Amino acid sequence: MALDSGVASLGVEGAQAAAHALSLPAEAYGNDERIEAIWAMKAYNHAEIYFNLISSVDPKYLKLTKNDDLIYTKFKETFNDIKLQILDPEQLKSAEAKEKWRPFCNSFEGAVEDFNYGTLLRLDCSKEYTEENTIFATRIQFFAIEIARNREGFNDAIYNASVKQRQQSQSSGQS
């Protein structure tokens, strides 16, 4: 799933053009493959940064937005039945789920920046981002689920594995 060249491959002018393009309304493009590729790169970069973050900092101490408490409370009130360890895509994408998610997501318009941007979300929180373990979701869905995973200890496995790996690397370097 790696995008080796990423945004850097666009160069300064390309990156500026991409930034401008991403600021325009979606209706201006239809299904432009170049724009879809830029969005995919942006979503991948966000996922990579987030995964590095939960690998480096104990997730229970992370604050993802200034509205984490509100997002978590509303998420638990609305979606208490969602199994956070391994998400069922139907609980995000089915027609019934979309009807339930829509008002939740829209309630954060103006309160959470880019609340409806496309973001990558891991299905199984004990695993990395891979093609098989990733679903496309809105940013507010990502925040709601990942804030809950962090607070409830489901992302601890990623952090603990990273700590163990660093310790092993340090031990083998000292031998």
Explain what this protein looks like in three dimensions:
This protein has 175 residues and is mainly α. The protein has a single domain (7-174), classed as Orthogonal Bundle (yst0336 like fold), CATH 1.10.3560.10. Helices cover 55% and strands 6% of the residues. It has a two-stranded antiparallel sheet with strand order 1-2. One of its GO terms (cellular component) is cytoplasm. Residues 35-159 form the Polysaccharide biosynthesis domain. This is Protein PBDC1.
Précis, in short:
This protein has 175 residues and is mainly alpha-helical. The chain contains seven helices and two strands; from the N terminus they run αααααββαα.
The CATH superfamily turns out to be: yst0336 like domain
Q: Compute the average pLDDT.
A: 86
Please write the string of helix (H) and strand (E) elements. HHHHHEEHH
* Discrete helix count: 7
Classify the beta-strand content into a percent band.
Answer: 5-15%
Protein name: Protein PBDC1
Organism: Chanos chanos (Milkfish)
InterPro entries: PBDC1-like_dom_sf (IPR023139), PBDC1_metazoa/fungi (IPR008476), Polysacc_synth_dom (IPR021148)
Pfam families: PBDC1 (PF04669)
Keywords:
PBDC1_metazoa/fungi, 55% helix, 7 helices, yst0336 like fold, mainly alpha, Polysacc_synth_dom, 175 residues
Please write out the topology.
Blueprint: H1 11-23, H2 33-56, H3 68-79, H4 90-93, H5 95-106, E1 118-122, E2 134-138, H6 139-151, H7 156-174
Antiparallel strand pairs: 1-2
Helix pairs in contact: 2-7, 3-6
